[in-house]
Amino acid sequence: AGVLSNIEPILMQNAFEAVVATDAPEFKDAILNIEILPVIIECLHCQTKSEIKNYTFICSSCQKPSNNIIQGNELMINGIELDE
Length: 84
What we know:
By secondary structure, this protein is of the alpha+beta class. It is built from one helix and three strands; from the N terminus they run H-E-E-E. The chain has one helix at residues 9-23; strands at 40-42, 49-51, 69-71. Strands 2-1-3 form a three-stranded antiparallel beta sheet, with no helix packed on it. It starts with 8 loop residues before the first helix and ends in a 13-residue tail after the last strand.
């Protein structure tokens, strides 16, 4: 989950645990791993990739502003593993 996706990991974890506990006893041992991805921009002037801190969208190399987000606004399910 990207920082800009507006996902609260603790709320997602709580919802997952509530569903597993009440609706699907066969999945009682299921776990949810949430990885938080930082915001990364690519500068349109110098093509430098920079991690954004404190929502300041400035290139770390040339110090020019950039809104070319290449990571950080996604919500993606990377995989599901099932054991028999």
